[in-house]
Amino acid sequence: MEEARNCGKQLKALNFEFDLVFTSVLNRSIHTAWLILEELGQEWVPVESSWRLNERHYGALIGLNREKMALNHGEEQVRLWRRSYSVTPPPIDESHPYYHEIYNDRRYKVCDVPLDQLPRSESLKDVLERLLPYWNERIAPEVLRGKTILISAHGNSSRALLKHLEGISDEDIINITLPTGVPILLELDENLHAVGPHQFLGDQEAIQAAIKKVEDQGKVKRAGK
């Protein structure tokens, strides 16, 4: 959680004041929001959680070592599974060691998705399709009211939202990498169009190193590296 605290410190140094926070229903998203608000001294800010901001469902790939996947399936296939817009990983089934843990989780009996509609696997396109209704119906109206919003989401739900707001093409989204624990600023106009490209806030050299670390996941380690 050190990354979350550092994120909060960065936002505090830039004097950010938030009116509303949105998270997924996954623990790391919720904990990150709590720690950021604690660092900001804004613990009282309302927090809302939605399944629609959850991380992408990687299907049968959940829990697998990315380097081993690259050895077994090739780096390009793993890159397509992880980074492309429309390629969906193989679906999870009941033989998967995490299947029952996921589909018996009590949070999915009380959150904003019927249990029988939980996906078995998702592409980034699928993530955007389930995220957009929440953006359009819940978050966007708050932005239009002039609220400053913090979204504590995940790598792929954040990529999907940026794709929509910045108009990033299906082909170019594969090259968009978001490092963990780095605040991203996106300013929107009155039509909810991005005023400019998203900005990473913080030490840019450290941010580029973090981006490379994410991009190197799913690659086969070679001797001498």
From TrEMBL:
<feature type="binding site">
    <location>
        <begin position="82"/>
        <end position="83"/>
    </location>
    <ligand>
        <name>substrate</name>
    </ligand>
</feature>
<keyword id="KW-0324">Glycolysis</keyword>
<dbReference type="GO" id="GO:0006096">
    <property type="term" value="P:glycolytic process"/>
</dbReference>
<dbReference type="Pfam" id="PF00300">
    <property type="entry name" value="His_Phos_1"/>
</dbReference>
<comment type="function">
    <text>Plays a major role in regulating hemoglobin oxygen affinity by controlling the levels of its allosteric effector 2,3-bisphosphoglycerate (2,3-BPG). Also exhibits mutase (EC 5.4.2.11) activity.</text>
</comment>
<dbReference type="InterPro" id="IPR029033">
    <property type="entry name" value="His_PPase_superfam"/>
</dbReference>
<dbReference type="GO" id="GO:0004619">
    <property type="term" value="F:phosphoglycerate mutase activity"/>
</dbReference>
<protein>
    <recommendedName>
        <fullName>Bisphosphoglycerate mutase</fullName>
        <ecNumber>5.4.2.11</ecNumber>
        <ecNumber>5.4.2.4</ecNumber>
    </recommendedName>
</protein>
<keyword id="KW-0413">Isomerase</keyword>
<feature type="binding site">
    <location>
        <begin position="55"/>
        <end position="58"/>
    </location>
    <ligand>
        <name>substrate</name>
    </ligand>
</feature>
<feature type="binding site">
    <location>
        <begin position="155"/>
        <end position="156"/>
    </location>
    <ligand>
        <name>substrate</name>
    </ligand>
</feature>
<feature type="binding site">
    <location>
        <position position="28"/>
    </location>
    <ligand>
        <name>substrate</name>
    </ligand>
</feature>
<dbReference type="InterPro" id="IPR005952">
    <property type="entry name" value="Phosphogly_mut1"/>
</dbReference>
<dbReference type="InterPro" id="IPR013078">
    <property type="entry name" value="His_Pase_superF_clade-1"/>
</dbReference>
<comment type="similarity">
    <text>Belongs to the phosphoglycerate mutase family. BPG-dependent PGAM subfamily.</text>
</comment>
<feature type="site" description="Transition state stabilizer">
    <location>
        <position position="154"/>
    </location>
</feature>
<dbReference type="GO" id="GO:0004082">
    <property type="term" value="F:bisphosphoglycerate mutase activity"/>
</dbReference>
